[in-house]
Amino acid sequence: MKSAIPVEAMVARADRVADIVAPQYDAIPGGGRYRFAVEHPDSFVNITLSARDFPDPVRSRRATARRAARHFQGMLERRLFEQVPGSVFFLYELDTGSHRQSGIVAGIPVSAIREGRVIGHEGTIDDRVDDLARFFRVARLASSPVSLGFQADARHLRLIEELSSAAPSRDFTGFDGVRQRLWTVAEPADVARVKAAIARIDSMYITDGHHRVAASSRSGAGPGWFLAILFPTDHLDAVEYNRLIRLDRVPGPGQVKRRLRPDWEVRPIGPPGGANPRPRARGELAMLLDGTWYRLRYRGERSPDPVAGLDVSLLHDRVLGPVFGVSSYQDGRLSYVTGGESLTGLEQQTAAYPGAVGFAMRPALIGEVMKVADEGRLMPPKSTWFTPKPRSGLFVVRWDQAAVAGSTRRRPDTSSGSGSGSGS
Q1: Distances (CA, A) of 80 to 6, 11, 20, 177, 391
Q2: Is pLDDT at 225 greater than 90 in this prediction?
Q3: Three-class SS of residue 208?
Q4: Buried b (16+ CB within 10 A) or exposed e, 160-169
Q5: pLDDT at residue 111 greater than cutoff 90
């Protein structure tokens, strides 16, 4: 792989940074993003809006990237960003109060995908990749770094600790209570140390941003590299990605239990708000049916296959399909509830619809993600959710048309484990 690339970047103005940096995209309900953007013109949400966030998604699809570029130009004219001298790396930290993670922000050449050093684990949706590639071609900027996990050695951890020993250039807490700090790595000796540290990494696993990687790899869509943040894997925190199905007619609890019992041990837990139904071990699920939580423990033989043996695969192959007739991951009756508070949201949504059945999942482990990715396989959609996610608008990199013209014209294959997946 070519060396990691220090970037020419702008950072949000220190006295306005909390207003500029966008909230986590999924923290704003889908129908409220456009309204939030209109009410907060200085927020970077205005740049990250997708076509589906607008009142008229079909009409807005082609115009979204042009609108974003114009809005960002207005932010520059309002002097909301400051140019950082030279080419730099950043150290970026997110602290929720109960969890803290720090990563190195750098440009990663798209050639690392072909070389197998950047590895994905989930499939992409063509329309989303098309939209992002269009954005990169028109706006020619990036601010939402792809999250990459790597197995850090003692020297990596020591470097991160040393780089964060000075006072940060930005230090603020967003409206969601997440503290964010940013350090600029500009001294030539430190830049060289960061390059050498990243060069020692054998594999970088995409934990968020598969669509951005795929879009950056498109011919003419970028300068030949993508903006990324590299987190040590032991800094990453996974939370559950729960499921909800909505049916016109739900089988009764007795019928459901009879259908499950060949493969599952089924035990009632209690009503919502009672005992904690969160799965506690591999091969365990929780089901909210007809106002009662049930704990499901798989008692069949566990497949050694790294995908078939996942808890999410067991749910779809052994419960949703044979018991409820929801066999496709694209079935419109299937939806997802994410995040650390997703259990409450799952209970609320299940109670709101008479034909709803909820399923609480154990969070995917980074080791499971790495095993699937190393074998060049893909996990089922919506298998992983790592939090907190890096925000957009704290730092911005831009490239001109000449940089794009000079970048690689080969379009890497991102439809397999080498860099494909979900996540915008």
Answers
A1: 22, 9, 8, 22, 16
A2: yes
A3: strand
A4: beebeeeeeb
A5: yes
What is the rounded distance in angstroms from the CA atom of residue 11 to the CA atom of residue 422?
27
**Under 8 Å between Cβ of 63 and 139:** no
State the pLDDT at residue 217.
93
Rounded to whole angstroms, the Cα distance separating 135 from 128 reads: 11
Report d(CA 257, CA 265) in Å as an integer: 9
Q: In terms of Cα–Cα distance, which of 101, 34, 142, 61 is closest to 392? A: 142
pLDDT band with cut points at 50, 70 and 90 for residue 360: very high
Helix axes 154-163, 188-199, angle to 10 degrees: 150
Tell me the HSE value of 44 on the side-chain side, using a 13 A CA sphere.
Answer: 24
Angle 126-139/64-77 helices, nearest 10 degrees?
40
For residues 78 and 86, give the distance between their C-alpha atoms in angstroms, rounded to a whole number: 22
Mean pLDDT, rounded, for 30-53 = 89
Residue 122 near residue 421, CB atoms below 8 Å: yes
Binning pLDDT at 50, 70 and 90, where does residue 407 land?
low
Gap between the Cα atoms of 356 and 350, Å rounded: 5
DSSP 3-state of 200: coil
Which residues, including other chains, have CB under 8 Å from residue 134's CB and lie 6 or more apart?
62, 64, 65
The string of pLDDT tens digits covering residues 233-263 is 999 988 888 999 999 999 999 999 999 988 9
Over the stretch 77-97, which tens digit does the pLDDT of each residue have? 999 999 999 999 999 999 999
> What is the structure's pLDDT at 26?
67
Question: How many secondary structure helices (H) and strands (E) does the chain include?
Answer: 16, 18
> Would strands 100-109 and 89-95 be described as parallel, antiparallel, or unpaired?
antiparallel
pLDDT averaged over every residue in the chain: 89
Q: Residue 201 and residue 203: Cα distance in Å, rounded? A: 6
3-class state of residue 378 by DSSP: coil
Confidence at residue 403, expressed as pLDDT on a 0 to 100 scale? 67
Report the greatest alpha carbon distance in the chain: 69
The whole-number pLDDT of residue 345 equals 86
Nearest by Cα to 4 from 232, 192, 231: 192
CB–CB of 136/216 below 8 Å? yes
State the DSSP code for 326: -
Higher-pLDDT residue of 381 and 379 is: 379
Residue 326, both tokens: 């929801």
